[in-house]
């Protein structure tokens, strides 16, 4: 018979009979909750709470930033809140279509990205528009509020009439003269035209009596302004200065039997 496997033996401390060494086997065992002292458990619980409290503000801030980013992307980067309607208010001389075309904002453009001031300037460039404002009405509407020009005089031009506002802007041409507006004769009605400005200054100085008698006001030069009144009478006004004094003197002489009243120098009046 062959000998069996060799056994490892160890000698005793005194060199005597060998003895078998102990065999150790390790095993993990889950400790029960009672194995940890209550004071330690309380300490660990408090530590967890402190960590959670410290992390909570950062978690909230990160959540808020993520939400704001989502909202900003939705409002600015998508058509969810895009322009769907353009509402126009206050128009009579221009059409809603003209105003919408002047706004120039395509459908679907994010409402928050519309340059309101630029849109208002484009609408204000329409001749009959004195001023305009553009505002947002969520979720998808632009509101355009228009203030149109008001005519204070008419200027004959060939076979038509140009309507002029208080600033001298000729903003509309009509075929027939509107009733109730004074007739002003200038070569080129415009806001930057000196003759137009002088004519409007004289009109503003007239008394109600003179306006009621006025047929037309002619400006042949800055110092050659005259009024034609009913009954084929003429008031030589001169330039546009001292309008209040000239109007007062001319009104006082309306009852005089004269065809021509010269108030160009209101301190020395002549008439015939």
Please characterize this protein's 3D structure.
It is a single chain. With 272 residues, the protein is of the alpha/beta class. Among the domains are: 85-148, Ubiquitin-like (UB roll); 152-271, Rossmann fold. Helix content is 31%, strand content 24%. The protein is built from 6 helices and 12 strands. The strands form 3 sheets. A 6-stranded mixed β-sheet has the order 7-8-9-10-11-12. Strands 1-3-2 form a 3-stranded mixed β-sheet, covered by helices on one side. β11 (260-262) and β12 form a beta hairpin. The longest helix is centred in the first third of the chain and has 40 residues, at 38-77. The relative contact order is 0.06.
